[in-house]
Amino acid sequence: MKKFFLLLTIISTVAVSQAQRLTPHRGEVPNAYNFWFYEPPADTLAAAKPLIVFLHGRSLCGNNLNRVLRYGPIDALEKGMVIDAFVMSPQAAGSWNPDRVVRLVDWAREHYAVDTNRIYLIGMSLGGYGTLDVAGTYPDRFAAAMALCGGSTLKEHCGLNRLPLWILHGTADRAVGISASQRVVDAMRSCDTASRLLWTPLKGASHGRLARIFYLPQTYDWLFAHSLADSSRTLCRDFDITMDDLSGKDVYRAVRSGGNKVVRMHGATGTQEDVAKGAEEFHTVKRGDTLSAIARKNHTTVKKLCRLNGIKASAKLQPGQRLRVR
To answer: At what angle do helices 126-137 and 98-111 cross, to 10 degrees?
Structure first.
């Protein structure tokens, strides 16, 4: 019986420890927003970590902070994805105010070991508007930003060209028409070449379908590929998001801020596959496979596949051939 209670105490202690990593904050930052804050496990905090700021859509507005947990990076964490970063999810009552969002970032920098070169913005719908408004107002505070099915209320958009930015919008969006994002893209291109912009119209995607992007590993891999330490602020083009990604089976895997994958978690089954740091993974070629299709499926590039396998982009693939993909 004593052993039982000891085990129960240990389990309860671990559960509380895990729960304390996600905490609500109400009225803590003057003239800002209430928010949830996720802290990675303590045993991973030897070094400074990136910070991801998620801005929600209109359906999550209000005064009930629990609504913010319905979708987004924290929900992805709850479903099994491991994101090696601090995550902040504020709640707005209406439109997003750039100054209030930045006050929250300053709070996080003051209270946690945030890597100030690696602070990222991501938002959807109303949060897509907020992401572009915040990024355009404070382009030098964020290493990169991703705006989903939104738009912008900014009077001028040239500031958005100063940071790596990925804008995605579904062509079948009836809630926020794709023209809202297209106007931003056109305005950015009218300033200069918009060399730090990725613009992805997703053919046939509805408004809600883009919420799946929060559960894709390449979303966070792309964000983490950017840093303010890169003085040229080069745009990473090594990742893609397609309609296949938005309609596939839920698969969650660890996303390490340094690019090392440790655990892959599959759907709701909780099955875990331990993957050693830097482990090799392979794809067996099937009839009709091409290097570009294999690269898209494995979220890599043809150039990397060629380098890993010592082949040329023009190489003819044979069914049964094994290709190293990472």
So the answer is: 70
* CA gap 51, 298 in Å, rounded: 26
pTM of the model: 0.74
Q: How many CB atoms neighbour CB 23 within 10 A?
A: 11
pLDDT in tens, 10-65: 444 344 344 348 999 999 999 999 999 999 887 666 689 999 999 999 999 999 99
From 144-148, 223-227, 307-311, the region with the lowest mean pLDDT: 307-311
Q: Which residue has the tokens 């996720």?
A: 38
CB atoms within 10 A of CB 232: 6
| 54/44 Cα distance (integer angstroms) | 22
Residue ranges of alpha helices (H) inside the chain are 2-19, 73-78, 98-111, 126-137, 179-191, 217-224, 243-247, 291-297, 302-309
